[in-house]
Design goal:
Layout (H helix, E strand, L loop, with lengths): L15 H13 L4 H34 L11 H22 L3 H29 L15
Amino acid sequence: MVHPKSVVRSGERGDGEKGRRLMRRVCSNCHSKVQTDSHFAKLDRAIGLYNYYYDGAQKMLKDLKVKGLLKEDKWSDAFQELNYYLWHHAGRRARHGAAMDGPDYAQWHGFFQIFQIYKDMEEIYNWRIKNNKIEPLSPVMSTAPY
């Protein structure tokens, strides 16, 4: 499963499909074909779930940008800061945790936080769309847990 905007398998950063085939060969040194197939199917589902939330966040970001409802300084804009954490921190942990069979990182440090961040992003998005302005104070209390 590849996100339509992914450069990893586009050839721009190398041959991702070849890399996947080579990784499957590495796995087969210790694991059965059934176990390897199961692992990659699970990983593809995890990436698909992440892409669902990432795509939703990017749609909201685009809508806010078109309407002029983003601050110029990304780090003083709650929505844009959360977008960064969704992608860079929680998103990366979820995908890497799924790839490495690390359920604690895939779930609690990854997808659980993705869901929390996404809900916060939706609240900010809905408020800005409804009021056609940027909230005066950020509803984001702290970026520490992300």
